């Protein structure tokens, strides 16, 4: 299915809403029915129609169709945040006493699910270095039911061999969920590689404007209905119509934005590699990246995030660098129009900083839509005044 068709036409029955080019926001909490038997049918299967916007809503359904097609998946559910999508995907596929395998150092709120919520119900999680396939095999138990992946993650860009992990999981009846936020479906497709559930934090590249939250979960129709009938409806974590509309609007320019960000990323990468303040950098498709060959195999391209280690002897130097930036903002998240910097040492006190610990000297740069030379000039003046 053509990308332009998906983004601009799929799911948009314009003749149903006065031939408006932009779809309407169906800002309604409930929907009228004319027949009692129609109501009965919806009570029995709310996934099959419109009854109450906590379940299905026409505006959200346009986004669902587009995102399922982009991921080459059968179906999609849209949540009010990425963590809500992950939570539903995990909870729908485990029970008390089960075991989960997760890549080590996952997104912090995912780790809270695994370490704080699920142990209340007797669910254990084992964290592994997911870059090595044998680690999955070594920690698998008879009660392992779920594998959580991030490939690449959003700090060090560690990868998992998705095809190999999916084959291993299917052999043992294990469900897999992959966070594909870094790559988007434009640069990586986990579902065709055998991953059961593909998640994206739509807050980032899909929305693209840092003005709304959202989470995308794609997979088989059977899996999406299973999640809808339980976790999605019971927790009430579905997206609101206006937020779905904002994500549709952001999706219109996804290809153009990703293309621009990719071009700028490669220019910033080349500059950072030569700058004397940078000790080493991390980027999945950089030839010096440890998993470069796997990245080339699984990813069409990479963009946006670059992590790098600076030659700093104190936390104060990094603080000065970040605070001296005039145009690149210091903030969490990424994927919007604005360029951002995030220092790892923000979680440390000055006395805790260890210059021999490379992680303490790690910064993450997100390249937005600004002119790349404009960003280079900003980084250059901040580096020169700090290191």
CATH superfamily of the largest domain: Type I PLP-dependent aspartate aminotransferase-like (Major domain)
Given as residue ranges, the uncertain stretches (5+ residues, pLDDT < 50) are: none
User: From the alpha-carbon coordinates, what is the Rg to the nearest angstrom?
Assistant: 22 Å
- Average pLDDT figure: 97
Summing up helix and strand content along with how strands pair, one would put the structural category as alpha/beta
Please state the second-level CATH architecture of the largest domain: 3-Layer(aba) Sandwich
How many distinct folded domains? 2
Kindly report how far apart the N and C termini lie: 50 Å
> How would you describe the shape?
globular
Biggest beta-sheet profile: 7 strands, mixed
CATH first level of the largest domain = Alpha Beta
The ordered H/E elements are HHHEHEHEHEHEHEEHHHEHEHEEEH
- How many helices? 14
Q: What fold name goes in the CATH topology slot of the largest domain? A: Aspartate Aminotransferase, domain 2
- Overall helicity: 25-40%
Strand order of the largest sheet: 1-7-6-5-4-2-3
How many DSSP-defined strands? 12
